[in-house]
Amino acid sequence: EVQLAESGGGLVQPGGSLRLSCAGSGFNFNGYWMTWVRQAPGKGLEWVATIRQDGSEKYYVDSVKGRFTISRDTAKTSLHLQMNNLGAEDTAVYYCARDNRLQGFDYWGQGTQVTVSS
Amino acid sequence: DIQMTQSPSTLSASVGDRVTITCRASQSISAWLAWYQQKPGKAPKLLIYKASSLESGVPSRFSGSGSGTEFTLTISGLQPDDFATYYCQQYNSYSRTFGQGTKVEIK
Fold first, then answer.
1. Which residues of A make CB contacts under 8 Å with B?
2. Which of A67, A81, A98, B69 is the most exposed place for a label (fewest CB within 10 A)?
3. Under the phi-then-psi rule, with left for phi > 0, alpha for psi from -120 to 50, and beta for the rest, what region is A85?
4. How far is CA A44 from the centre of its chain?
5. Which pLDDT belongs to residue A101?
6. How far apart are the first and last CA of chain A?
7. How do residues B25-38 score in pLDDT, each as one tens digit?
């Protein structure tokens, strides 16, 4: 069974940093692109970042470029999102998802809450 | 970046109704479009990919159509479990843009 489990969310002050992780199991993690998607309170889904299987290609939404870094650990089958210089606009539930390039995001984690507030 | 526009934003319907949600892309995305269903407090669930292909395990009352810039999601015979928010998403480009969502409410 494919499973994705996020961790690392929490309350952080404006300007602070946080590192999210996503553990994948039940599938060949190293064979898939992986993605982070977020959802602000009461709002829609927003694609945040995507990384290729080997980490050689990374793509970001404009609003996080230069502040967020997506990475993956192929040995530990985990995905990460390093978030720096956080602002209130980054408050959201963050989901990791398996990016099946021909079928969209076919598996999702349960999400982890990130709250940026003083 | 490719913009995705869904309509309507909210839809009121009754059990058994046929409902249609429209999604428009700001430029051609061929058939690289997916539809997701999301219930409150839950992760989104993939329903349709490549505009019209039904994801495994999804009931056949869900169907998708379209190509280029105009797409539709149809639910034929709305069931109580279908009241949720639906999102379209393009995956033609590396920035995987979502539509703003359509909430299907009980009439």
1. 35, 37, 44-47, 50, 57, 59, 61-62, 95, 99-106, 108-111
2. A67
3. left
4. 16
5. 87
6. 40
7. 999 999 999 999 99
